[in-house]
Each structure stands twice: as C-alpha cells, then as structure tokens.
Amino acid sequence: MSRFLISCGGTGGHLSPGISLAEGLVARGHAVTLLISQKKVDARQIEKYPHFEFLRVPGTGFAWSPLRLVRCLVTQTRGFFFCRKLVRERKPDGIVGFGGFTSAGVALAGWLHGVPVALHESNRVPGLAIRVLGRLARRVYLPAGIRLPGVHAGAVRYGGMPVRREISRLPQAAARAALGLDPNQKVLAVLGGSQGAGSLNDWARGQLPLFAAEGLQVFCVTGLDKGGATEPGGLKTKTGAPIRAVFLPFCDQMAELLSAADLVVSRAGAGTIAELIRCETPAILVPYPQSADDHQRANAAFFERQGGGLVVEQAFLPALHAEVLDTIFNDWLLRKFRGNLQRMDRANSLELILDDLDELVAPSSAAPTTPLASAA
C-alpha cells in the first residue's frame, strides 16, 4: 500500500478529478488524503464523500492588484509551511496536484523532501501553477497535443481528465423523474461552472417565457454565490400546459441532470466538458471571457472541432436563444453530437494514470515505463 496526497481544491474543475483519482487509488488498496481550499464550493462538494480525509490548506489565488498580491503571498507562505509539516508527518509515497493555488505549497514541499510529484492539467492552456511547478514534477499529465515549455519531455504523459465514478449516462426518463421533471418535455440545462455565471443565469431567466412557450423545461445551476433556489411559476406552453423551470445554487446530481438534458448551455471549464463527454450530452459552450490565459476559449474550440457541440461567444448572448431552439429541436443533429461524444470518451484516462502512478512510486521506478503516451 502506498500513501498519496492529492491537492485538488479551489474549483470543481480541480476537486472533481481529485476525487475521481482518490476513488481509483483507494480501489487499488492505497491510502489518500485530499487537500482542498477554504472556499464554500469545496465544502459543499465534499459532503458526498465522508469516507475520504479532506484537509483545508491555507492559500489564495494569484492576482496583480497590490492588496490581493500581498494576501496571496502571505497565505501561500502559510500554506507552504502547513504542507511541509504534513509531508514530514505523513511521509507520502507520492503527491498529485491538479493545479490552482492549493497545489503550490504541497508540490514544493514534496520536491524538497524527495517525494515524487505528479501534476495534472485538464485545460488546453496550462495554468500558472502547472507552468511554474512543472519543472519540479516527475510526471506532468497533459491533454493530447499540448506542449509545456521548460518541462522535460520524459516527464510528460498524455491523459485526459479523470471523471468521478458516479458520473455516467443514465436512462433519460429515469433521470428526469429523479429531478422531478416531465419525462415527455425536452430539457435545457444551464451551467455556470462551480463558481456560477451571473450572465448565464440572467440570460436563462430572461428567456424563460420564450422557452416555456416552446415546451422546454429549464434547469439552471446558478452557483453558490449567484442566488438561492427558485422555481418560477406560471410558465405555460403555447397550448396552456404548465412547464417546469428550476434554479438551484448547487446540484449534486450531475449524472441525473446531464442525462436528463437534451442540450446544455455552459461555460467551458475542463471539468464540465469531461462530464458532458462521459454522459454524451450535447452542449453549446459560452467561454468565460476573463478566464485565465483565455483557457476556456481553447477548451471550447477543441470541443467544437471534435463535434461535441457548438460555441457561442458571450458577446453574442442576445442571439443564443435562437441557437438553442435551432439545436434542441434538431434530433438528427443531437444524435450526431452524441455519437461524437461517445467516440471522444473511448480512452480510460483514470486507469492509465493509476497504472503510471503505481510505477512512479514503485521502488524500482528510477526509469519507469508506462502505458501512457510520452512526449518523446
């Protein structure tokens, strides 16, 4: 049995694959401790996993504004000493970081103590933490075709994003029933990512009468800081039949929601895209224009090129409703998208990464071989 520290806090896009990796490692007989941030989104998401040990690490994200930069430096220093003490006490065999500010302290502490460090980047534009810490890592897992300057080619492996065990395609009628939705009416899901998206929430609310008249049910996940649970009443189809519209700050039934939906309108975080692919749910992606290094636009463009759905820039939100209606009632196009999504999910990224980590922490891993494709 090996002991792993997994740093995966700050956003759902870091935490979800961290939980997936923890599930896989525990299934192989390893021990895991997950390091998360002090954000509300982390606290809410881990409620479903009481069997795992979670530790909250001090730290905040990098920013150029003077006050936030000072805060980042102070909290990251605290986080480093917290992690260095943890590494000394737990003596892990391996450390895995999924990027973000929670990965910095533990990756540095692990490197100083000679612990093998692996980093995983899900976005098609590597984040600041991965770019900086990659030089310290013995493994860097990247999306296919992505390069990371300054990182030794022998350390790079190509593998997609691990997806939690609970995320899988369910029968549509059963998924709709689990969410209290009409099994006979089409469903549009609107997702703003783990942080929420005020502009998408406002757009969804503004289009409710139009969508209801067309017979569309709307299920919008607003984000924890973007509003409470609501269920607008009085919405009817053109024939006068009532229609459902649900707005929730958080949804811990993502497999049911993605399986229930005919179409999703969403931001373009790597975590959301991985779950869309796993559940074979077509999407119209609206990249967040202020995402770091514009990584969401790169994610969305790749998703569209692979045939999983469409991309609409936020500047064109006023025309998004027309794109939604043209797509959600085009059954041929939806079938085409679903077939492409099924093709995109052929590789089992989790098993490939688990095999590679087993070799990385093995006593004879000085020159490991791995089933994952290397960059060489």
Which key terms come to mind for this protein?
376 residues, alpha/beta, Rossmann fold, six-stranded parallel beta sheet, 15% strand
Describe the secondary-structure layout.
Blueprint: E1 3-7, H1 12-27, E2 31-36, H2 40-45, E3 53-56, H3 66-90, E4 94-97, H4 102-112, E5 117-120, H5 128-133, E6 139-142, E7 156-158, H6 172-178, E8 187-191, H7 198-213, E9 217-221, E10 245-248, H8 254-260, E11 263-266, H9 270-279, E12 283-285, H10 295-305, E13 309-311, H11 320-328, H12 331-344, H13 349-361, E14 373-374
Parallel strand pairs: 1-2, 1-4, 2-3, 4-5, 5-6, 6-7, 8-9, 8-11, 9-10, 11-12, 12-13
Antiparallel strand pairs: 7-14
Helix pairs in contact: 1-13, 3-4, 6-8
Radius of gyration of CA atoms, rounded to a whole number: 21 Å
Q: What is the terminal-to-terminal distance?
A: 30 Å
Please give the CATH class of the largest domain.
Alpha Beta
Shape summary: elongated
Uncertain residue segments? 365-371
Please state the average pLDDT score: 90
CATH architecture of the largest domain: 3-Layer(aba) Sandwich
Structure explained in plain terms:
The protein is α/β, with parallel strands linked by helices. The protein folds into two domains: 3-160 and 347-374, 3-Layer(aba) Sandwich (Rossmann fold), CATH 3.40.50.2000; 172-344, Glycogen Phosphorylase B (Rossmann fold). The protein has helices at 12-27, 40-45, 66-90, 102-112, 128-133, 172-178, 198-213, 254-260, 270-279, 295-305, 320-328, 331-344, 349-361, and strands spanning 3-7, 31-36, 53-56, 94-97, 117-120, 139-142, 156-158, 187-191, 217-221, 245-248, 263-266, 283-285, 309-311, 373-374. The strands form two sheets. An eight-stranded mixed beta sheet has the order 3-2-1-4-5-6-7-14, with helices on both faces. Strands 10-9-8-11-12-13 form a six-stranded parallel beta sheet, sandwiched between helices. Strand 1 (3-7), helix 1 (12-27) and strand 2 (31-36) form a beta-alpha-beta unit. Helix 3 (66-90) packs across helix 4. The two termini are 30 Å apart.
